[in-house]
């Protein structure tokens, strides 16, 4: 459903990128964790509910969802724009405070909720309508968010009440919000176009393979996330040294993930069914994706930790523009094959840009530091 992809694109606006600010601030001053969560929950609720309403109306008007209940769309969008954003920010606080056990538990609970949603739909709901699925999706996200808040309150106390978020915090968070939106665009624009230009069946073939690759990329994401607090704590210039050291491990994980993805290709139709036979071919094309992301994920965190988030966003903007143009030009002609190649081109471009921006940014910072350091 295209509305899910649209929800993931606009969802970062509901928190105004405060998750990035949380990581930056708490890595250096852990005592702010209760006030940062209070600020983020306030922003997410104040902005997330109107955004959910806007996306619901957009879904009814733009995505041929006129026959669907408004509640179905709102339940899905509210889950993404409000509940998931709160879960994400609580997880970032655990991560910034290096509470790795709690971070892992939060991620495990979120992953388990998806499995629980599938099992509930399969065995407890008959027939499983779209409305029932939306209600299950909303309920499981609500439960995960409440569990996250319970663990936070149990370990750290209640979030501090927030009625006004400092303007300086919003300014710092805005580049992170734009970066998240751009990431969602170059990740989901192909799925939106495949659904609207071709069919949900074609999108299902592509999306099934893509989700499997993402599943194998998750260990890379977890590893990079565990290193990010160290990058932010040391900042320029040490973050780059730590990044290079971390990259040797992340690339190893990426290569291992790529091998597993490639080996699993012939068995995909056996696992998912014969209607997903083409997904095996998609998966084979996407094998290199874990390796590409294992590099640019680390470089992106190094840029952000070094005060170069705007350069990171600029790179994401270029990659997004290229990705959308390629999708618009070639998906109508080549279907999912165009989506695959535009994804690989975009990820490669992102790697090159982040590498160049890291070198350029560090040269600029080094020159600036040499002028400001007293001799």
Describe the structure.
With 375 residues, the chain is an all-alpha fold. The longest helix has 37 residues. The radius of gyration is 21 Å and the shape is globular. The model has no long low-confidence stretch (mean pLDDT 82).
- The counted number of beta strands is 0
Topology pattern, helix = H, strand = E: HHHHHHHHHHHHHH
Structural class of the helix and strand makeup?
Answer: mainly alpha
Biggest beta sheet attributes: none
Strand content: under 5%
Name the helicity range.
Answer: over 70%
**Overall outline:** globular
Report how far apart the termini are: 62 Å
Low-confidence stretches: none
How many DSSP helices? Answer: 14
Average pLDDT works out at: 82
What is the radius of gyration computed over CA atoms, rounded to a whole number of angstroms? 21 Å
Keywords:
mainly alpha
Task: Give the helix/strand layout.
Elements: H1 2-10, H2 18-28, H3 33-62, H4 70-96, H5 100-123, H6 130-156, H7 167-198, H8 200-234, H9 238-264, H10 268-272, H11 277-285, H12 289-305, H13 309-334, H14 336-372
At a glance:
With 375 residues, the chain is mostly helical.
């Amino acid at each position: 459903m295209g509305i899910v992809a649209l929800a993931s694109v606009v969802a970062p606006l509901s928190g105004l990128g405060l998750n990035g600010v949380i990581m930056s601030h708490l890595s250096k001053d852990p005592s702010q964790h209760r006030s940062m969560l209070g600020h983020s929950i306030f922003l997410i609720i104040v902005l997330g509910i109107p955004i959910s309403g806007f996306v619901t109306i957009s879904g009814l008007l733009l995505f041929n969802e006129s026959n669907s209940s408004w509640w179905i769309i709102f339940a899905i969008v509210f889950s993404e724009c409000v509940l998931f954003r709160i879960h994400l920010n609580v997880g970032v606080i655990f991560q910034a405070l290096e509470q790795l056990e709690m971070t892992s538990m939060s991620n495990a609970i979120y992953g388990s909720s998806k499995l629980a949603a599938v099992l509930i739909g399969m065995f407890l709901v008959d027939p499983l309508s779209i409305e029932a699925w939306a209600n299950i999706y909303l309920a499981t996200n609500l439960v995960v968010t409440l569990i996250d808040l319970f663990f936070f309150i149990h370990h750290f106390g209640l979030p501090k009440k927030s009625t006004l978020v400092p303007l300086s915090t919003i300014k710092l968070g805005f580049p992170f919000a734009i970066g998240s939106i751009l990431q969602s665009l170059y990740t989901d624009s192909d799925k939106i176009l495949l659904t609207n230009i071709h069919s949900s069946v074609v999108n299902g073939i592509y999306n099934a393979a893509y989700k499997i690759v993402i599943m194998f990329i998750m260990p890379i994401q977890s590893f990079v996330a565990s290193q990010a607090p160290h990058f932010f704590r040391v900042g320029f210039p040490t973050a780059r040294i730590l990044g290079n050291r971390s990259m040797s491990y992340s690339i190893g994980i990426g290569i291992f993930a790529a091998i597993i993805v490639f080996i699993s290709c012939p068995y995909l139709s056996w696992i998912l069914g014969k209607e997903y036979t083409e997904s095996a071919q998609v998966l084979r094309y996407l094998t290199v994706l874990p390796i590409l992301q294992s590099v640019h994920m680390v470089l992106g965190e190094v840029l952000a930790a070094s005060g170069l988030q705007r350069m990171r966003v600029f790179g994401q903007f270029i990659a997004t523009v290229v990705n959308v143009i390629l999708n618009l030009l070639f998906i109508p002609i080549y279907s999912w094959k165009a989506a695959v190649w535009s994804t690989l081109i975009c990820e490669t471009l992102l790697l090159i840009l982040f590498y160049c921006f890291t070198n350029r940014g560090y040269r600029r910072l080094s020159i600036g530091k040499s002028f400001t350091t007293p001799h």
